[in-house]
Amino acid sequence: MKYKYEMVYPKIGVTDKTPIVMTLHGMGSSYLDLRPLVSVFGENVIELHVQGDINYGSGYAYFIPEFINKTEIAVIGSVITDIYNQVETILKQERLQDNPLFSLGFSQGAIINTGLSIFYPNWLDVVVILSARLPEFYVVEARKNLTEKQISTKIFISQGQKDPLFVPATGREIASFFKKYADNVEYHEYPSGHTVDHNAPQDIFEWFNESYITR
Predict the structure, then answer these.
(1) CB 53, CB 4: distance < 8 Å
(2) Phi, psi at residue 77, to the nearest 5°?
(3) Among the listed residues 111, 20, 18, the one whose alpha carbon sits nearest the alpha carbon of residue 63
(4) pLDDT of 90-114, one tens digit each?
(5) What total of structural domains would you count in the chain?
(6) Residues near 10 by Cβ (< 8 Å), separated by ≥ 6?
(7) How many CA atoms lie within 13 A of 4 on its CB side?
(8) Among 40, 97, 116, 168, which is most exposed with the fewest C-beta within 10 angstroms?
(9) What is the CATH number of the domain that holds 132?
(10) What would the mean pLDDT of 154-172 be, rounded to a whole number?
(11) Of all residues in the chain, what percent are helix, strand and coil, respectively (each to 5)?
């Protein structure tokens, strides 16, 4: 398989109702980075941590954001397809195709999560997008192939007000975009930079329990 990954099963028994929580890290990190956040979805989950395949700094990346010789759709689009195909293969091997699938991503991982929600609508039951941006080819794809409120995925988006990479307007743009195509979109801004704000886990937990568990 292209991407190194780790699967962690809960200690209690797994049924077809047990959620799978996929994590997609940011540049220069690894599949260990977002493991502490999985607990926002409860203890009885299957963890699937997918690591980028490109060495970058002290960690890894899924793609290098240089679009001189290749377009964004060629670079990022292929990653979205590859991750979708590999995860589908893993789920079939583990006989988990019918289980709920959640995905939590930060920065580059959040950009991929955004793309997965657009190119494979309703594949993910819950998606968390922490500090991302919206490539133009995502917008083009949505206009061509999505209708209003077609996405049933529950979507949580956050953005740092002091983020030097993605200004707050970027997060607001993603939220506004998804509100056109999805029914359940939650958006939060935090007084922080390009990071997972310390208040985000509690906000995700409360939103998830209100929008997914109780409905």
Answers:
(1) yes
(2) -60, -40
(3) 111
(4) 999 999 999 999 999 999 999 999 9
(5) 1
(6) 18, 43, 44, 45, 46
(7) 12
(8) 97
(9) 3.40.50.1820
(10) 95
(11) 35, 20, 40
CA distances from 2 to 5, 16, 46, 85, 92 (A): 9, 27, 21, 10, 16
Strand partners, 160: 190
pLDDT tens digits, 110-129: 999 999 999 999 999 999 99
> Which residues, 6 or more positions from 19, have their beta carbon under 8 angstroms from its beta carbon?
41, 42, 45, 46, 99, 100, 101, 102, 125, 126
CA distances from 138 to 77, 118, 144, 185, 206 (A): 9, 7, 10, 17, 29
Q: Where are the beta strands (DSSP E) in the chain?
A: 5-8, 20-24, 46-50, 54-56, 59-61, 101-106, 126-130, 154-160, 185-190
Tokens of 79: 């990653």
Domain of residue 66 covers 5-213
